[in-house]
Amino acid sequence: WRVSATADGRTVRSGEVTVAREQPSVRVDDVAVGLPSYLTGSFNAAEPMQVRGEVWVPSKNRWSSIAPVATDDGSFNLKLTYGAEAAGTQQWRAVGIWPDGSREYSATVTLTRSYQATIHHDGPKPILAAGKLTGAFKTDGNPVRVWGEVWRADVNRWSRTASVETASVGGAYTIPLTFGANSTAAQLWRVAAQRPTGVEYTPQVTYRRTLDANAVITQTTLAEVSGHYRSGCPVGPNDLRTIRVNHWNFDWKVVRGEIIVHKSRANDVAAVFTDAFNKKFPIHQMVNPNKFGGNDPKMMAANNTSGFNCRKVVGNPNVWSPHARGIAVDINPAQNPYRDPTGKWWPSTRYSSYRPAGVKGMLYSHSAPVKAFKARGWQWLSGWDWHHFEKR
Fold it and tell me: Is residue 21's pLDDT more than 80?
């Protein structure tokens, strides 16, 4: 620097001097997404002053500040949480504010937030099926408590699952997913971990469920037929198979149903109800006969669709029903009643001969279950046992 003076048209210059400015020290540490970082350093202060952090916001083309802190010796340690839930880089600087209002600026430093945990999902899964998120957080050999978070657009916030602990070694986790299992809408998920300084997040993933009947056939257990099975039944659990399958109910909601049939008929029945689901044929309910103690009149009154039931023919107690062998299926008895050998209609005479078009759950020759059963060699006892299909 030098000073110049002009008088009477003449300029006189001083000698030159050197002015050195000592820039404040500043640094910032990179962190995982979700956790705070700290802007640290010091100003050369001989008196109390204030220090605040400023971050460059490209969308606004300006610096944005955080609340200042007081310091007696110019040293500072500013907690940075702005934009903590997003990966990327930010430009930060420290601003010293002296008692006279003048300001001093540090150099600009770059803060990088990155995803350090992993996340995977097992989707797409069929509707009503439980899913899971898996992955791992970095650990120091101790378990970390983690939970899943799903974005709820209806309430404009993240909603969390119950928490679980990671494995001590490797930090692996598994988060069961049951929220929204009855919907095929896309869901946005992430996993969070509780750290000493805050909450760390994984990247976000989109989870979907498909509109699928998802028929699953398993070996029938004794417990699954305990409400009506007894010694002397024509077949036992070893010869039976339990089918769990999605179906449309009378409110046009997808629910999970259960039906038990003979092992030789299981593939047929699973295919029939899959076709009924795909064609949106409604089933009022399809629950295990144990709920009714195997009592067929009660099941018909409840409009329950069923298969195996160790019982005699309704109205003919001397003859085993085909249901006792697992080779018959009844669908929507209330809309498709049965006439016993005495001429009585079960569960009522409604729709016994009056079969108008367009009744929800009623079986017609063009109905999906009727066509699917017939295509596989099953007989439909239309006219007197409207709800009954069998294959001997």
Answer: no
